[in-house]
Automatic annotation (TrEMBL):
Biological processes per GO annotation: cellular response to starvation
CstA N-terminal domain segment(s): 62-624
Keyword Methyltransferase part of the UniProt annotation: no
This protein's GO CC annotations: plasma membrane
Name of the protein in question: Carbon starvation protein A
Organism this protein belongs to: Pseudonocardia autotrophica
Bilayer-crossing regions: 36-56, 62-81, 122-141, 147-169, 190-214, 220-238, 250-269, 284-306, 313-330, 350-371, 392-415, 498-515, 544-563, 575-599, 606-630, 678-698
Gene: cstA
Keyword line: Cell membrane, Membrane, Transmembrane, Transmembrane helix, Transport
Subcellular location: Cell membrane
Family: Belongs to the peptide transporter carbon starvation (CstA) (TC 2.A.114) family.
Amino acid sequence: MTQVSGGGAAGQELPPAAVDEDVFLAERRTWTPLKIAIWATIALLGGLGWVMLALVRGETVNAIWFVFAAVSTYLIAYRFYSTYIERKLLKPDDRRATPAEYAENGQDFVPTDRRVLYGHHFAAIAGAGPLVGPVLAAQMGYLPGTIWIIVGVIVAGAVQDYLVLFFSMRRGGRSLGQMAREELGRVGGTAALVATLSIMIILIAVLTLVVVNALGESPWGVFSVALTIPIALFMGVYLRFLRPGKVSEVSWIGFVLLIAAIIAGGWVAETEWGQALFTLDRVTIAWGIIIYGFVAAVLPVWLLLAPRDYLSTFMKIGTIVLLAVAIIVVRPELAAPAFSEFAGRDDGPVVAGSLFPFLFVTIACGALSGFHALISSGTTPKLVEKERQTRFIGYGGMLMESFVAIMALVAALSIDRGLYFAMNVPASLTEGTVEGAAAFVNSLGLMNVNVTPDQLASTAALVGEESIVSRTGGAPTLAVGLANIMQQFIGGPAMMSFWYHFAIMFEALFILTAVDAGTRVARFMLQDAIGTVVPKFKDTSWRVGAWICTALMVGGWGAILVMGVTDPLGGINTLFPLFGIANQLLAAIALAVCLALVARRGQVRYLWIIAVPLAFAAVVTITASMFKIFSPKPAIGYWAQHFAFREAIAAGETSFGNAATPEAMAAVVRNTFIQGSLSILFVSLAIIVIVAAVLSAWRSIAIGGRPELEDPEIASRIYAPSGLIASPSEKELEKRWTEAVGDRVRAGH
């Protein structure tokens, strides 16, 4: 028994802080006939789904097989592979207090209910990547993206998220840069810190750019998304002061208010005053998000960040599950080929570059994302109640994001291929008109593709938009695809406009939650970096330091955002390749740090769990970086494009390539210089970190492991179940705790 004062009556004898290890493992290993039948059915459905997608060839493929293949594979991976990693590699101990418990300060370190934290973590990691990347990669066909999203997440993405979260939690919630500096020495650690800070600026900028493109000239979306902020503030106060611990209660309240915000947005958008007030241009929206990012990052985490993320998770997971159900019921046939005409070429109009390596950096967050490592070593490890919860939150959260990516891919594939290209190529190629878009798409010479201006205009009218031509960024394409599937499930064509704007709201919420959490994490990292020179900055509760560092980071990504919004060639088309490469380079850095940490433990036998995804990520991202730096083709290489436009300007040209004006040409020269320079910086830093990590791991292996750098073990004085659904033994122990101290322990107080 654990003695505690303050959890109940002073000196009260409390139940254990964790279920006995033998009992816990015995429950997990028990196989009943029913359990065997369930898992056999899951395996059969998954196998059938993969056979239909990969081997059966026809003019169309039914979308239902994507759902069966993905869900079955995720369930098997979570039940068996993540359990293997937990048992063999990490060995969590719920008797140990987490930083949220022993360092609780009511600001950044707060024990948070696992369900709320799962919502916060999932909302924070699930930004633009799983929505935009698969949509852009749909240009290459459905099979390459499907394989990478599902297989990649199991062996790479979810593994990275789980390991980084666990190791950060064991080290007091330290950031990835801090852990790298401790483990890799001055050179490797400094390179990792500079890389994470600079890459983070690019990642957040591109995330916000997708929101801006989705909300631009959309009063419905602007109003509804803005309304989620006061709703989240109310939820934070409600759960903190009015009804502590009443998670289910506040969940229902938040859900009702969220639906009301969506419906109200439709009403407001139909009024003259609503259109006048909430129809904002992209630059205005960009500045609004910049201000929001600063405020959200400096407020206490329980007030806005955690409840807003939890709130948005209802919409995120709910929408994806609803879409999956609709696919199963409607069973739409997808006309897209398994491998498209652009799978073997490098001149795709949406994303330039060959399938290898550019598919793997275009589909970033759905399979592997370095941004997640920053969240997993940022806000989340400071909030987790018990060590075993890291599997549910880290590995399980990433699987859900992968499913979002699969649904985004299906939605993009479900619309007419001609419409897909008309929406996703920049205005410089379509002239921004239905006539120009139809002419360009038909000039591509794609099999069975013949789009007309009337088709593009009627589709825009159906979804309640002025135009859908060159709505780049992936979000509008996903919204059209989702609306097309959902209207067949509920409401018919008359509901297309509602479902389209519902999807826009869904996507904007998705991304904004990554922006506010990402900015907060960036602030932590910058405070840590400055703290090596001015120690006061290391104190994350010091408000002045927090405000200064937040302003610096917001200023960094805000400047890139404004550059992207005003890019004449379409900011997302030029910035997303850099986003994908930077994101995957950061993933390679995170995996390299994990490799060194596991080697320090002396667990050589299980290093392959990290070495395999690290090797793949390193090869892919370094190769992609070399293409972007050295390719002589202007459509692929930043420097090739930079010098081509410089020479055109020097020759007195007033238009060149896709730039129609001298101002546009100058913008291309400026932007490609920035992007090319950043590409060189990022890949150089990543190589330094990977080499330093391999050398560190080698030194550890040579001497059979080195002393751990984890925080000293402190006995836990609270209890919480390990997963979403408590096991029988966990329910019994939870009941004993409730009888002893009430709901306060489960609320983290």
